[in-house]
């Protein structure tokens, strides 16, 4: 099998004026990388972010690594794009110039735009820079996500043209472009992605009651309470036991993203070394549904006890969620940091 992006001559069909890709059966592919770079530069370079009496400007695109392709298989459009972008921004507050960066490490089709990670930093830390950092975090990220959303929509619109050929007996302008794919994940925090075609049905009234359950579990770790707290909150330590890139904004209302975007939410309460409260969800749960997670740490004489209480778990996901906490959190933490496991 050919590597992704290289193409295999047995399956890739070149675009031909005689429309030999009958009924769009074969895989056709367009390189959208050059177009994407131009579009992203147009949307981000010199972009002005203003609001609440403050203003910042994207003055340079320091880094833009990645690629994008548009594909058609059996009349279904599939878009692949993955970008790592670093932007330099500048603003003025209290008559002081402030500079910093916005990092977008994983703009890809795997995540919805509102789930794309944007990390804000400043070049020098002082009162003025902290003011603009908060502004860029609360206002700038949302405005930049709208620019990224524009890129995605225009990518799909522009590259849908001509990618699906008319079937026999139809005119080109009669060809309907099917809605974009949805990404559905099987159970587990680290999951294999499955691409499913969107099914359109008549509008229905929504708001059905969801059957939910509560999970309570106790875990013991051979370490101090502060060590376990750091394992759950320090970016480098969480990266170590989850084995992947993470996002942790460790303050009330701050966001977290783990396991490639499959686990996400916000911090509701943080008491160092004692308690972490989160609004928490798995990506495959019903849209907009979150559970509440409370992790309480209690220092014992020779170990630390952790009590996990998770409410509002969809009943259909209860057993998988219980198993995943054990596998991807507790067992992984013990293995990564040598916090041991009790046999009794």
TrEMBL record:
GO molecular function: ATPase activator activity; protein-folding chaperone binding
Sequence ranges assigned to domain Activator of Hsp90 ATPase AHSA1-like N-terminal in this UniProt record: 29-161
SUPFAM superfamilies linked to this entry: Activator of Hsp90 ATPase, Aha1, Bet v1-like
Domain of life (superkingdom): Eukaryota
Transmembrane feature ranges: none
InterPro entries: Aha1, AHSA1-like_N, ASHA1/2-like_C, START-like_dom_sf
One BP annotation, GO: protein folding
UniProt GO cellular component terms: cytosol
Similarity comment: Belongs to the AHA1 family.
Protein name, per record: Activator of Hsp90 ATPase AHSA1-like N-terminal domain-containing protein
Organism: Aedes aegypti
Lineage: Eukaryota, Metazoa, Ecdysozoa, Arthropoda, Hexapoda
Gene: 110680778
């Amino acid at each position: 099998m050919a590597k992704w992006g290289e193409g295999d001559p047995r399956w890739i069909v070149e675009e031909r004026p005689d429309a030999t890709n009958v009924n769009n059966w074969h895989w056709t592919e367009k390189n959208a990388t050059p177009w994407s770079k131009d579009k992203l530069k147009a949307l981000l370079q010199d972009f002005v972010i203003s609001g609440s009496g403050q203003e910042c400007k994207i003055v340079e695109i320091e880094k833009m690594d990645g690629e994008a392709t548009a594909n058609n298989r059996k009349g279904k459009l599939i878009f692949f794009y993955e970008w790592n972008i670093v932007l330099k921004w500048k603003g003025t507050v209290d008559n002081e110039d402030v500079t910093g960066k916005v990092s977008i490490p994983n703009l890809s089709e795997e995540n919805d735009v509102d789930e794309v990670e944007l990390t804000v930093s400043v070049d020098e830390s002082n009162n003025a820079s902290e003011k603009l950092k908060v502004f860029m975090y609360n206002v700038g990220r949302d405005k930049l996500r709208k620019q990224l959303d524009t890129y995605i929509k225009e990518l799909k619109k522009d590259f849908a043209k001509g990618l699906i050929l008319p079937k026999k007996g139809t005119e080109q302008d009669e060809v309907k472009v099917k809605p974009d794919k949805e990404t559905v994940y099987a159970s587990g925090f680290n999951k294999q992605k499955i691409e499913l075609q969107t099914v359109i049905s008549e509008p229905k009234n929504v708001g059905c009651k969801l059957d939910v359950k509560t999970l309570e579990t106790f875990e013991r770790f051979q370490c101090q309470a502060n060590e376990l707290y750091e394992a759950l909150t320090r970016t480098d330590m969480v990266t170590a036991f989850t084995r992947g890139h993470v996002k942790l904004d460790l303050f009330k209302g701050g966001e977290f993203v783990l396991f490639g975007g499959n686990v996400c939410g916000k911090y509701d309460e943080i008491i160092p070394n004692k308690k972490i409260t989160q609004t928490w969800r798995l990506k495959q749960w019903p849209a907009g549904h979150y559970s509440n997670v409370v992790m309480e740490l209690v220092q014992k004489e020779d170990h630390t006890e952790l009590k996990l209480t998770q409410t509002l778990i969809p009943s259909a996901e209860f057993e998988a969620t219980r198993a995943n906490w054990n596998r991807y959190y507790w067992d992984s933490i013990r293995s990564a940091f040598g916090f041991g496991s009790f046999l009794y």
